[in-house]
Amino acid sequence: MKDCLFCKIAAGEIPAAKVYEDDELLAFKDIAPKAPVHLLIIPKKHLASLAEAAPEDAAWLGRIQVLARRLAEEQGIADGGFRVVANSGADSGQEVAHLHYHLLGGAKLGDIC
Ligand code: 5GP
Ligand code: ZN
Question: Is the separation of the CB atoms in 83 and 105 below 8 Å?
Fold first, then answer.
């Protein structure tokens, strides 16, 4: 989608520290990490948030969960514990209107969520 930051990252128009990429999904380091490991996992397809997910999106949404587990292992945070968060909409504090999952770990995380 035009003027979407994460669509531009997915298209390679804006650089990002990518850690995983396939036809449907992309994972890259958050630019302002809130934990020792802080990745963002996005679908290349533009959805503003989880509020726009439809039944036909179930396959790649499921793949995101499996990818989060795999990346947690690769990043060395699987054993210690990690968190996966998708903010959706204004009350959640979502800042970038392209669906993304935060993968956080590597330290004791705060109490919210
Ligand atoms: P939200 O608040 O929407 O759930 O999270 C947006 C996240 O995107 C934030 O953690 C923020 O640091 C990250 N972010 C914003 N702009 C960029 C960028 O240009 N590159 C990368 N890698 N992360 C970004
Ligand atoms: Zn987008």
Answer: yes
